[in-house]
Amino acid sequence: GMLTLRGATRPVRFNATLLPETVSSQDDLQMLNLILNAAVNRSDFGATGFRDLVADRVQIEIKAQIEAAL
Known about the structure:
By secondary structure, this protein is mainly β. The chain has no helices and five strands. It has strands at residues 2-5, 8-11, 15-20, 31-41, 57-67. It has a three-stranded antiparallel beta sheet with strand order 3-4-5, with no helix packed on it.
């Protein structure tokens, strides 16, 4: 997908893990937990400050929950 940080938009490939809701059966897909992971270089988005505190390459992890509309 495309990621925009500090006004700069770049393509980023996220690894996705889909997990069924733990309280339902494995075949019930009414609710899913989604975890997305990627790594980006901050400098690609113009974020170059605080180099002594934050490395250029940073990890992004997004946790989301998807619920089926009835």
